[in-house]
Structures are given as C-alpha cells and as structure tokens.
Design goal:
single chain; 111 residues; mainly beta; seven-stranded mixed β-sheet; four-stranded antiparallel β-sheet; 11 strands
C-alpha cells in the first residue's frame, strides 16, 4: 500500500499562488493514477485535479486555467500548482492514489 505525505499549504492572499507537493512511497508509483481532492468546512470532499499514469489530466471546472497538476515519477512526487487563488479555494487538500489518502494540508485564502 502506498503512503502519501502532502506539504506546501498555508495562508495566502487572494490572487496569490501556492504549490502543493505529495511525496509517495511504493515501488510502482509510476503505475498509479494520482489526484488532488479538497474539503471545505461543511462540504463534501471534491476532486480538484487528476493525473493518470500516462500523464493525461483533468480538472474540476472551478479550477480550470488556474491550477496545474503534474508528476515526477523518478522522485515519486505529485504537485498541484495553484495560481490566482480565491477565498473559495480555502480547504484541506488531500493527495490520493494507490487506494490511499494523505493526511491533508490546509490552504487558506484570505486578506
């Protein structure tokens, strides 16, 4: 079973940027489809972005054009570059892959 550890969250002003990272264990990381989810207070967890083992990506409509998911199979890392952040992006962001969840990292967008 893969283990996932997120980092990179924090407090940022509206319009700012953050880059989330997800470090994975496991020898077959390159075969996993990976994704970022988020959960805001009082809301259900939702898919933000996904990247397949072959590299294709898809995004939630709310983040298209602002967020970019990428992966580095050699380093067993998944990234989420978040630009033009809005207050409604405030949530705990989770990395998912290989049937495992990370512990989450808080992203707060506020002035």
């Amino acid at each position: 079973q893969v283990q996932l550890v997120e980092s990179g969250g924090g407090l940022v002003q509206p319009g700012g940027s953050l880059r989330l990272s997800c470090a994975a264990s496991g020898s077959i990381f390159s075969l996993y489809d990976m994704a970022w989810y988020r959960q805001a207070p009082g809301k259900q967890r939702e898919l933000v972005a996904a990247i397949r083992s072959g590299g294709s990506t898809n995004y939630a409509d709310s983040v298209k054009g602002r967020f970019t998911i990428s992966r580095d199979n050699g380093k067993k890392m998944v990234y989420l570059q978040m630009n033009s952040l809005k207050p409604e992006d405030t949530a705990v962001y989770y990395c998912y892959g290989g049937y495992s969840w990370g512990q989450g990292t808080q992203v707060t967008v506020s002035s």
